[in-house]
Amino acid sequence: MKNSLSVLALMLCLVFSSGNAQKFEDLALTPPMGWNSWNKFGCNVDEQMIRNIADAMDSSGMKDAGYEYIVIDDCWHGGRDSLGFIYPDSARFPSGMKALADYVHSKGLKFGIYSCAGDKTCGGRPGSRGHEYQDALTYAKWGVDYLKYDWCNTAGLNSVGAYTTMRNALYAAGRPVVFSICEWGDTKPWEWAGDVGHLWRITGDITHCFDCELNHGTWSQWGVMRIAEMRKDIRKYAGPGHWNDPDMLEVGNGMTQSEDRAHFSIWCMMAAPLIAGNDLRSMSNETKEILTNRDVIDIDQDSLGVEGYLYATMDSVEVWVKPLVKGDWAICFLNRASSAQRFEFDWSKNIIADDLSKRVLNTNGTAYTLRDLWGKKILGDTKGKLTSELATHDVLVLRLTNR
Ligand code: GLA
């Protein structure tokens, strides 16, 4: 009892001392990389599976490629005790969250968890509304490094207030946590969340198809290309420490290999958080090669932190561009058509000027070397025209260098 009273007293102190609260800086200077349970497993989460995923993250080369966070999404919750403290489902997590976080940390990885700003999570488990400071303290005690915070069952709540409250609670609890805002872009978080979170979802939920909408009546899930084209003109809000989040990856979850490659490439061009959503324990070599292609990951993780954009569309071939450090550029040609497409790109006629970064790609006078990041070979330089053919839903991703 004495113990509980002192915890409550500490919580009150935290609430009233949160005037200077802020988000933890310097935590996501490049887009966060990790794995999350939702896309593949939904509510079917348990501690043994999470341990095995952490093992696979380590042994598969994903960790070496930069993936860091293991995040348990919805449905880990058991309930709240008589003082309101959250505890995990004891059948699914019999060793408790601290032991699981310790295990993940022992693998050199970081541990993430999910909650919701509403009374209940989207999966009907207890939400954090009214328990923000208490939950933040519990997460700190468990060793949580990443919190995804959802937006279901939030009637009457203001998004800026609700997410700021949880940001303040995390800061007061004192353990650095990456704060992932998940309100689906409903209240334009890119306009207000730069100081609140490290990443914010910009759309509704993704699904593993290239170009579809799964209509559930009151809400829809979106194929990867639908998500890539959904928000225009918000790239200026992204940068080191604060990223637009087009949702977690569906690589390895059922699309073709070309589609998975295209999805991954466009996410990297968008400087998106790279949160794998497949079963790492049983992924194919093809899936692993996509998720661990370091040259493509380098595009995403480029320290300039400028989100790329759709520069041009030539029939069904889209041209995405992204300025990189040291004067380099990434260029991604993407075939949206359901048949193979030949295309030609004349570098000398395409002077690419990016208003946001003030960078200009002008190959007249400077020849850039073209490196094909999936083919892993040099494709000549920008002196001539590029002529190529793309299979359906496939990409050619080039890194241009003039050093
Ligand atoms: C929402 C989120 C998803 C996932 C589920 C869990 O739909 O957008 O990413 O977290 O809730 O219930």
Account of the protein in words:
This protein is globular. It has an eight-stranded parallel β-sheet. The chain folds into two domains: 20-300, TIM Barrel (Alpha-Beta Barrel), CATH 3.20.20; 309-401, Immunoglobulin-like. The chain has 403 residues and is of the alpha/beta class. The longest helix is centred in the first third of the chain and has 15 residues, at 2-16. The relative contact order is 0.11. The model has no long low-confidence stretch (mean pLDDT 96). The chain contains twelve helices and 22 strands. Helix 3 (47-59) packs parallel to helix 5 (96-106) and helix 6 crosses helix 7. The protein binds alpha-D-galactopyranose (GLA).
Strand content: 15-25%
Structural class: alpha/beta
- Helical run tally: 12
- β-strand number: 22
User: How large, in whole angstroms, is the Cα Rg?
Assistant: 22 Å
Oligomer designation: single chain
Uncertain runs with pLDDT below 50, 5 residues or more? none
Q: What global shape is seen?
A: globular
Number of domains: 2
